[in-house]
Amino acid sequence: MNKTLIDRIGNTPLVKCTTLNTNPNVDLYFKLEGNNPGGSVKDRAALNMIKTALDAGEIDKTSKLIEATSGNTGIALAMIAAIYGLDIELVMPEKATKERVQTMRAYGAKVTLHPDGIEGARDYAIDKVENEGYYSFNQFSNDNNWKAHYKSTGPEIWRDTDGEVTHFVSSMGTTGTIMGTSTYLKEQNSDVQIVGVQPTDGSRIPGIRKWPKAYLPAIFDASKVDSVLEVSTEEAIAMARRLAKEEGILAGMSSGGATAAALKLASTLESGIIVSIICDRGDRYLSSELFE
Predict the structure, then answer these.
(1) Distance between CA 206 and CA 252 in Å, rounded?
(2) Longest Cα–Cα distance in the chain
(3) What are phi and psi of 67, to 5 degrees?
(4) Using one digit for the tens of pLDDT, what is the confidence trace for 117-148?
(5) Where along the chain is pyridoxal 5'-phosphate bound (predicted)?
(6) Is 72 annotated as a binding residue?
(7) Do 275 and 168 meet the contact criterion of CB atoms below 8 Å apart?
(8) β-pairing, 26-32 with 14-16?
């Protein structure tokens, strides 16, 4: 037995959509990443980035760590840094929900709020690395981000669908989840369709981004995504609320966006098995307007 908290990262449930999907010839499954110890899909990448850096001797308990994050990666890094006895500063957009800030601080992390969004947070962290001797995992260009999903998320989906998954739907932020899962699933069956989710122009959905070219994650490879569906802020909010009320799944706005996209996809298919990522838990958004 002797399972540690770290051993509980991954192997999240895959549950069937019972109400929202109205196409009887398509099965839609939700992968509940909020069941990870830190409450989101980012536990996987955070563990892989920290563990690999420690094993390679790139960091130790004397290192000054810093990372820009919109929220979930920061919580995951704070949790795992606490387990390994590491100090870390997390830089977030100042509009982040107070639950996220308080959770990171509870784990012992220093939290810096930046007025210029995630792009400003990324620039701030880079400056600290270049001029003040900090170490950043840089989730946007760190191959150990997407490799976490190649090693765990992809194999779990393949196993839990008995190799019958036909479509994988994921919101795109750092793009680590979709890159790693796509790489694995395509190796098993090149016909599996990988569908990315982005916001419509002018929409703001935490966790889903349409990056300016200068900030496009270096780990992103467009050839690993077969198609992209866009969702609006309104669609993402409405679907997050419906997920809770109709499926009993309390999740954040990016999960609402991914679900909206998955349902659009389902309505166009003659048959198929879709897996969509529910990337976190909704309780870290209760102070926002999401569920009002």
Answers:
(1) 8
(2) 58
(3) -150, 135
(4) 888 999 999 999 999 999 999 999 999 999 99
(5) 72, 173-177, 254
(6) yes
(7) yes
(8) antiparallel
Verify whether residue 254 is a known catalytic residue. yes
Binding residue per annotation — 259? no
Distance in angstroms (rounded) separating the CA atoms of residues 148 and 77: 14
Which of 170, 254, 255, 288 is flagged as catalytic? 254
> pLDDT class for 211, splitting at 50, 70, 90?
confident
The answer to the question of whether 254 is labelled as a binding residue is yes
Distance in angstroms between the alpha carbons of the first and the last residue of the chain: 42
Separation between Cα atoms, residue 141 and residue 33, nearest integer Å: 22
- Confidence (pLDDT) at 1: 65
For domain 60-132, the CATH architecture is: 3-Layer(aba) Sandwich (3.40)
Averaged pLDDT for residues 34-46 = 98
Answer yes or no: are the C-beta atoms of 111 and 92 closer than 8 Å: yes
Q: Residue 40: helix, strand or coil by DSSP? A: strand
61 annotated active-site: no
174 among annotated binding-site residues: yes
Taking the C-alpha atoms of 246, 203, 141 and 240 in order, what is their torsion angle to the nearest 10 degrees? Answer: -10
CATH numeric code, 5-40+152-285: 3.40.50.1100
pTM confidence score: 0.95
